[in-house]
Amino acid sequence: MTLCLVGATALAGCARDAAPPADSAATPEGTPAATAPAAHFDQHSYAEPGKVRIEDLALALAVDFEQKQLSGSATYTLDWVDPEATQLVLDTRDLTIEKVVGERADGKWADLEYTLADAQPPLGSKLTIEAPQRSERIRVTYRTAPQASGLQWLTPAMTEGGEQPFMFSQSQQIHARSWVPLQDTPQVRFTYTAHVTSPEDVMVLMSADNDPDAARDGDYRFEMPQPIPSYLLAIAAGDLVFEPISERSGVWAEPAMVEKASAEFADTEKMIEVTEELYGPYRWGRYDMLVLPPSFPYGGMENPRLSFITPTVIVGDKSLVSLIAHELAHSWSGNLVTFVTPNHGWLNEGVTSYVENRIVEALYGKERADMETAIARNALREGIEEMSDAAQSLAIRPGVEPAVDADGSEVAYDKGAWFLSFLEQRFGRDVFDPFLRGYFDHFAFQGIDSQTFIDYAKDNLLAKHPGKVTEAELEQWIYEPGIPDSAPEVSSPRFDAVDTARKAWLDGGELPATSVTDAWTTQEWVHFVEGMPETLPVDRLAALDKAYAFTGTANGEIAQRWYPLAVRSGYGEANEEIAEFLQRVGRRKLIMPTYDALVKTPEGLALAEKVLSDARAGYHPITTGSVDAVIAKAKGEATTTQAD
Ligand code: BES
Ligand code: ZN
Questions:
Q1: How far is the CA of 152 from the centre of ligand 2 (A)?
Q2: pLDDT, average across residues 406-412
Q3: Can 327 be counted among the known catalytic residues?
Q4: Which of 85, 289, 508, 540 is at a distance of 20 to 30 A from 361, taking alpha carbons?
């Protein structure tokens, strides 16, 4: 068996027997999305969208908490694009396939032959269905495995209320295949319906038309009439109640959490309105948020109509709601105009991070938006130095074989956003804002690649406003490593004041008085801690702790920076709180820096292993995979592929 590594390693011989050409043709200019675009090579998927495409998915699923299992069927309505094609190839991971049937011309359903190949990490098992009659509808009956990588099953004890179990999905990047057999590539979009049954007192929600007034009876129906890529397929079930924020927006959460959450996210309607003003109407009907248990491995996930949100941003002062701006922004960048394969991740995450910052600026002012930009760019500057040239670029040129990139990095987010700020600065908002709005309209409900963005920008920005940006500059931003010299800088007087205060203390002076720091926001605290030296003497950390009580902070953004500093400095005082934090929170971005710091010394590694063994049962498979990999690497063990 070939061992496939996620990351920089190429995937030769891993994904497919014969790779189709690395075709860069997206939908040609002006062609309606309805005509099937040319297939792109996506090495994250076995699907063959050049041959046949899922147009609609009808799910019928039962949620079984005891077995940690979804079981039922998926019925596909198919568009047989290639007149010669007689096979439907689907992505699956750890699924048990029970039966496959196809609808015959006479309307009767008959068994179809199929082959489920051995699993090939990280892709999973290729399911090949023989469909000699090119059935318009095919149905797969299946069940999931308890360890499905895209699902987390929580016992009642692992929830806020402690009464009912909880289950949620996380399909991005390539985890949808672990709970539904499908063409798991964003170049295929489908509408869906679902009939889901569950224990009676459990509420089920999906990335679809959730009815805030739905009766809780264990029998739920959903419809998503807009075509979405597979990574946006989502489901959650638990003791969930709804609290409205506006006519079209509200929060779903466990009862104990829902009021705090709706207060924290009270500005959501305003966020929708400012984004609409900038980039055109919100096209998805309702925009609700689902607050998940702290084990959710991400900050947020832009599941359409129902963003999934970590509870770690609920800190009482709205200081971390740029996360909501981010997930909402995906309703334009990502969900409407989608990367054609994950190798063009910046088209989702970079454009979204730019839009997020525009929303933050409109609602909370330029000072806050600039502080958030500065934090992101400082981290990017630091992180990018250690990356390979390929990892430093937003995308690779058409024709070059890409590696599997299932996770993205700050390059896609922050270099991508920086690139858009560069365009904004050169053209001015008067020109750039309508351009971006036109871009969202033009490619709505389509998948595109980086070259398509470049071509569209050349025609609609560069050619129409000559002399501002050259084609070479565009290409440098997208295809070259590093941060171009043309990158605009951001300044933050409030951060300058923080720098001055920190430096005064490091030079032997007093710590800034609480009369000063009382006015500091999360962003200023983050900047204060981030600017500290690699390590500090233990008594200096104790002084900081005494003044500001960093250890044990309820703010994960601060914890994420303070604990690694504590670990690097050998400040054992913090160990108990570190263990508590790492056990309670599963959001990778918040906890991985501390694990990374811990595994660098033998004592730290021992603590990391102990914490992981206590936390494992409560962690999401995606988080467990990341922590396992870091520990194994520190111990010099080889790891097999991790699929996130
Ligand atoms: N779509 C991403 C989450 C994601 C990306 C999951 C790649 C799997 C693979 C989501 O919109 C996101 O970016 N979340 C961030 C939020 C932050 C940048 C505000 C996160 O989880 O930290
Ligand atoms: Zn995002």
A1: 20
A2: 77
A3: yes
A4: 289
